[in-house]
Amino acid sequence: MEEFHKVRRLPPYVFEQVNRLKATARAGGADIIDLGMGNPDLPTPQAIVDKLCEAVRDPRTHRYSTSRGIPGLRRAQAAYYERRFGVKLDPNTEVIATLGSKEGFANMAQAITAPGDVILCPNPTYPIHAFGFIMSGGVIRSLDVVPDASFFAPLERSVKHSIPKPIALILNYPSNPTSYVASYEFYKDVIAFAKKHDLIVLSDLAYSEIYFDGTPPPSVLQVPGAKDICVEFTSMSKTFSMPGWRMGFAVGNERLISALTRVKSYLDYGAFTPIQVAATAALNGDGSDIAEVRSIYKKRRDVLVDSFGKAGWDVPPPPATMFAWAPIPPQFRDMGSLEFSKLLIEKADVAVAPGIGFGEQGDYHVRIALVENEHRIRQAARSIKKFLATTGTGDAANVVSLSARR
Question: Which Pfam families match (predicted)?
Answer without folding.
Answer: Aminotran_1_2
